[in-house]
Amino acid sequence: MDLSPILLSLETSVAATATVTLLGTLAAGWRVRHRGAAFELLDGVFLLPLVLPPTVVGFLLLLLLGRASTLGNLLYGLGLRLVFSWYAAVIAAAVTTFPLMYMTARAALEQVETPLVEVARTLGAGEARIFRQILLPLAWPGLAAGMVLTFARALGDFGATLILAGNIPGKTQTLPLAIFFAVEAGDTEEAVRWSLVTVAISLAALGALNLWTRHRTGLSMRVVQQD
Amino acid sequence: MEFHAEFAAHRGQFSIEMRLNTRSARVGILGESGAGKSMTLRAVAGLLKPATGRIEIDGRTLFDSSAGVNLPARERNTGYVFQQYALFPHRTVAENIAFGLAHLSRDEQEARVRALLGRMHLEDMGARYPQQLSGGQQQRVALARALATDPRILLLDEPLSALDFHIRGLVEKELIDTLADFSGLALYVSHNLEEVYRLCDEILVLARGRVMAFGAKEEIFLRPPSAEVARLTGCKNLSKAQVTEDGRILALDWGVPLRVSQPHARAQHVGIRANHIVFADAPGGENVFSCAVVGSSETPFRRTVYLRFGTAVGSGPHLQAEVQRDRWEELKGRPMPWHVRLDPGRVFVMPE
Questions:
Q1: In chain A, what residues touch B131 (CB-CB under 8 Å)?
Q2: Helical H runs in chain B?
Q3: The domain at A4-226 falls in which architecture?
Q4: In terms of pTM, does the model score above 0.90?
Q5: What value of ipTM does the predicted structure carry?
């Protein structure tokens, strides 16, 4: 049996989650320090992939990265054929999940009390150090939840991946695509198998988050009980 | 130490105009909530950018709008103690105190932290987390953290207000000692008159973002420049005033003519503090008036007596007098009218 859909799904989801965690957290960290109408508009752009159907996101990405566009043309000139490659699957998953991470990270960073940041500034800390040593550790539980949501959503992406990366077995055929094409080919047994695998991975991700949160809560409980 | 600040700052509809030039080490900023006290501290710390003006300490410019100077908060060398302390919850007490010492070697940091823990009576607390400490201990950690960087300006924003009443006095005593050792400028924000009086040398009275008075604390309390400052510094008895031809002051709201020791050519208001009012045994004499007691209320050690001039019990009281409990025991059986004496040396007049 060809296990490549499992491997591909895990690889693309992990890669997308890593990318989106980094970019989404940085974008959110930058955004919480800026207020104003222009930034609200930017929020709209950031959140667009969440409200658009994944097929539309995939199609827009195809237009953007395909050979017909200036950007696509430039990338082709550099030898980067993104469309219908493994990278396309990662990009599709990353773009569709970005809003989730961005929103969760923003909420997590915003609930860190302002005086903590301000007092750090008066103590001589620069913005990068404040982000690393104050904001990130205090927002960490929220960020971790965002990462799990991102991973689960990336694992499930179908529309955007299909349009941008295609359905190339062993290269871009992730679990959702494998399921769809198994159903289409009448291979119910295989579709059920892939579905169960997907359920298992998703549950494992949620379980890991739960365990981890409980562990952390337990830690802080112990800290308080020492008193 | 020499500090100059003259600036205007806005936030939304609210604006402040600050003017504070001082050589004194401990300046209290007194005002009701929303007067602009915290905003003043934030502007000095560099957490809020004034629209115009200049802030400098010992010749070092922190902010100067005309020269385009606006040092970021991290370069201003201020120590800020927030009302709720703002301790980093994920760092131990020692790590909190060491946060501003990142430029020092590990050994130096440790020595510094140990010294501060000792000074603040927190020797065994270094490894604890802030949430494991009592309010008073948290306050001391916040102070130690602020002092760790040897700031030139210490900004204290209602540092005692989050504490339970019974330990506030104790912590205040420690704070007085700490401030006595501090060589820079301490700006102490509070709405508590007595606290500011005990902790500071000079007082700046703020209302609606404007400086109402500034000077030595005794001066501000003895001779407030306006009725508003008198009220903000806790004076309960104020009346509009008019200078009469014989050189006395007619207290218009009270309907009595007063002799006043203080020069008073431009008296607009007259006032006397509740604890300066005394009761005479008989009518007659300077500034002695008949009055009726229209009510009284009790505190553990004192009695507040509400008085109305004249013999008829009319509507509201004119004066509030504070008397010690034992004095009240002597007074309370006396028949009406009582005779109240407003000592000419205690009555003060205000040009505004």
A1: 223-224
A2: 37-45, 93-98, 106-119, 135-148, 165-181, 193-199, 217-222, 227-232, 325-331
A3: Orthogonal Bundle (1.10)
A4: no
A5: 0.85
